[in-house]
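Amino acid chain
________________
===
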Amino acid sequence: MKQQELAGPLAGSAEASPAREAEFGPARALRRSAPVRAAVAFVRQASTIAWAETRKLRRDSTEIFTRAVQPVLWLGIFGVIMGRARAIPTGSLGYLDFLVPGILAQSVLFVAIFYGISLIWERDLGILHKYLASPAYRGALVAGKAASAGIRAVIQAVIVSAVAVLMGAHLRLSPGPLLAALLFIVLGAAVFSTFSLIIACLVKTRERFMGIGQLLTMPLFFASNAIYPLSLMPRGLQLFSRANPLTYQVDALRALMIQGGESVMGYGVDLAVMVGTLIVLVAVAARLYPTAVN
């Protein structure tokens, strides 16, 4: 009798187990799938913003070519003159080969660093208020704009690389290095465009934003390895250069694009610095984004 009484509760609990699993199973599955659904929504929202931003090029495609004038002049004048002077030691590379990745990174920087002015225009036109009233993730809004800057940078890179080949630069044209170089071009554009969005969230006005953007571009460019090796810099400037993301972008591009080029920092370090910097900047920009409407 006691065995039957003991077996009863055990049997009941065993019989109730499938019922409870059927009751709570969907809720558990929903909780487990929530991160996946959130990630898919984030990517979809960022892609939508990137597509909307990229479509602006169809209305003003001359922007790409006008922005390519300055890097072409750097290659055509500075590269040729300094190459003939042989004043800068570049190891086994000719100076034009050494310079091409630096000027390419410069063009990416100049395109991306003023990208934040679009945020100020959107605020003045009321578009930013609509973005912020939507259920979209703030990080997706920032990531979408960063991706759009990357697309613009790739177009710019094609123009600069074509000019460099015509001038006699020895570029690697195999698919693997080219794809890896495109990755670093997109990362560089994303980093500096996100940094630009942070500036736009803080300064509020177009005039002040343009002034700060112009103030930052030259130090970022000259305090890097874009036009001369780090070994030529004073010790203090070397420390600043190693904190400059542009240095790591140029280092990777020089090793990937140029025949005989090599990475001083290492590909892993270059990639880790670029990706880590981008993650931090996207998080900061997403936090500051709602304050841009004030």
The CA atoms of residues 178 and 267 lie 14 Å apart. Residues 2-293 form one domain. The longest helix spans residues 2-54. The mean pLDDT is 81.
